[in-house]
Amino acid sequence: MKRRDLERRLRIAGCFLKREGGSHSIWMNPKNGVTETVPRHGEIKEALARKILKRLDAE
Predict the structure, then answer these.
(1) What DSSP string runs through 1-59?
(2) Neighbouring C-beta atoms of residue 47, cutoff 10 Å
(3) Is residue 6 within 8 Å of 51, Cβ to Cβ?
(4) What is the largest CA-CA distance in the chain?
(5) How far apart are CA 56 and CA 15, in angstroms?
(6) DSSP class of 33
(7) Distance of CA 9 to the CA centre of its chain
(8) Element at 37 (helix H, strand E)
(9) Which H helix or E strand runs over 35?
(10) Which residue of 1, 6, 7, 33 sits 20 to 30 Å from the alpha carbon of 42, by its own alpha carbon?
């Protein structure tokens, strides 16, 4: 999955970018208070993208 597509799905679900790390971005869902790291690669493996979406309740 493209990183920008993953970020778009996170924004639609109400998540926001909390901060940028060295090689990862930290996203947070204010509804449940969960934070998750998203790697800054152009392409993110499907299994990892599904895990991030599931943890942030953005499926």
Answers:
(1) -BHHHHHHHHHHTT-EEEEE-SSEEEEEETTTTEEEEEE--SB--HHHHHHHHHHTT--
(2) 9
(3) no
(4) 27
(5) 8
(6) T
(7) 8
(8) strand 34-39
(9) strand 34-39
(10) 33
SS3 assignment, position 7 = helix
What residue type is 29 in one-letter code? N
What is the per-residue pLDDT for 50? 96
Please tell me what DSSP assigns to residue 13: T
Q: Which residue has the tokens 């800054």?
A: 40
Closest by CA position to 27, among listed 44, 9, 43, 45:
9
User: What residues does 2 pair with on adjacent strands?
Assistant: 43
Distance (Å, whole) CA 41 – CA 55:
19
CB 24 within 8 A of CB 40: yes
Rounded to 5 degrees, φ, ψ at 40 are -95, 70
Give per-residue pLDDT as tens, 4-45. Answer: 999 999 999 999 999 998 899 999 999 999 999 999 999 999
